[in-house]
Write a structure and sequence with these properties.
heterodimer, A: 7 helices, 4 strands, globular, B: about 280 residues, OB fold (Dihydrolipoamide Acetyltransferase, E2P), 2 domains, 4-stranded parallel β-sheet, about 35% helix, about 25% strand
Chain lengths: ~140, ~280
């Protein structure tokens, strides 16, 4: 039984398209692929130090989804809480150059972007299932 | 020509409000005069944004009342020119923001209202026509070890020791020399939001010293059009120059002739203050 004890943190996504993809992949996990089974942690709140986000990531396995190789989400978890249980770098899925394009509003997504979101969410699901199998 | 602006949204992901802060920021960033700041990258690598923070006015968009973006800006001692809270904007529109992030008319309305509020604040700030007096002359009196200064003219005071000085339809509000001496070293000024409307004697923010917090009681009614952002970095200006550089809030007056009935002019306040310090034996 999972009981929402796997956390997931997306990069903030303001600098690049990879960030937009990472945010939307996390939303897809929450709403479609693993509804009620993941706890999403708010990265700005995590950094601000409020709301129990850091404590959660210390106690429970948490997956970082980063938009580019700066890996802000992963680095924040490791700085303030614990080692990540798994991480996804969107740039490795869609290519560094693509990941560094400008961020997008959801209204401007193309089919290509939606495919990137699918791939990222799928990779995240795979990591999620591996962690859940060990619990 | 529009001034340069940089936008720091909270970018929260687990609530709709955070996502709307991002959407509003992305819309603003479409303009050539606006740059986007990622809160997480800012926290990790401030130097990346040093130039834009030095050149542009900072607008902060918080999603919820945890105000992560404002806190981050505060922790990094950034000077905030303007800030908007998405949840408060939604509340004013009577729109309930849930957790789900979706394209809905309500969400679009909130984003548009946030943008309108930011643009209107900028316009109000730009239209400020307050003309500073060339020189302020003072009368003073001493009581014990203290010397209290009161301007000779053009200032009006309420009995809470807050002043207003008027320039056309604009005015500046601050606290008297008596207040700053009582508070001693001022550490923090918490101003109202630009665009706030208020009545005479309403609270208009606060100032805090190591000794106490002083609520600013507005001597006039009107709308906040600017706050003295230099006090973010140098709140001691209120101690050093309470009637000039240490002004707190700039307002567009609603009806000064009516407000004036309940205010002291400079000579009357001078006498009032003399009586006050004698009675309470400062």
């Amino acid at each position: 039984m999972i009981n929402n004890k796997i956390g997931i943190i997306s990069c903030s996504g303001e600098e690049c398209l990879g960030g937009t993809i990472s945010r939307l992949a996390v939303r897809k996990m929450m709403e479609e692929l693993k509804p009620g089974m993941v706890s999403t942690l708010c990265l700005p709140l995590f950094i601000a130090g409020d709301g129990g986000e850091r404590e959660f990531a210390e106690k429970y396995p948490t997956i970082a989804i980063d938009g580019c190789s700066k890996c802000c989400a992963k680095r924040a978890i490791e700085k303030y809480s614990n080692q990540v249980a798994g991480s996804v770098d969107v740039a490795k899925i869609i290519g560094e150059a693509k990941a560094l394009e400008k961020p997008l509003s959801t209204r401007h997504l193309t089919d290509e972007h939606k495919e990137f979101i699918e791939q990222t969410a799928s990779k995240t699901c795979q990591i999620f299932d591996e962690i859940a199998a060990k619990q | 020509m529009s001034e340069l602006r940089c936008v720091l949204p909270c970018n929260g992901l687990d609530k709709c409000a955070g996502d709307l802060s991002r959407r509003a920021a992305l819309e603003l960033a479409q303009s050539e005069n606006a740059a986007l700041i990622c809160p997480v990258l800012l926290n990790q690598n401030r130097s990346r944004y040093e130039k834009v923070l030095a050149d542009a006015n900072l607008t902060v968009i918080d999603g919820c009342n945890t105000r992560c973006a404002s806190k981050l800006a505060g922790d990094l001692e950034l000077s905030i020119n303007d800030k908007v809270n998405v949840s408060e904007v939604a509340k004013a529109l009577e729109i309930k923001l849930g957790v789900d992030i979706q394209e809905s008319d309500d969400n679009r309305a909130v984003v548009q209202a946030v943008l309108a509020k930011i643009n209107s604040s900028a316009a109000d700030q730009a239209e400020s026509e307050f003309i500073e007096p060339e020189a302020v002359e003072y009368n003073s009196f001493s009581h014990g070890k203290f010397i209290f200064k009161v301007p000779q003219n053009n200032y009006f005071f309420n009995e809470n020791d807050c002043w207003v000085t008027v320039s056309g339809k604009m005015a500046r509000v601050g606290v008297s020399d008596y207040v700053q001496q009582n508070l001693s070293d001022i550490l923090y000024v918490d101003p109202p939001e630009i665009g706030d409307e208020f009545e005479q004697f309403d609270d208009l923010g606060s100032i805090e010293s190591s000794k106490a917090v002083f609520e600013i009681v507005s001597p006039v009614s009107g709308t906040v059009v600017a706050v003295n952002t230099s006090l973010n970095d140098a709140p001691e200006q209120v101690n050093e120059s309470p009637y000039e550089k240490g002004w707190l809030v700039e307002v567009k007056l609603r009806d000064f002739s009516e407000d004036q009935d309940l205010l002291h002019d400079c000579p009357a306040y001078f006498e009032f203050l003399q009586r006050k310090v004698t009675e309470i034996d400062v």
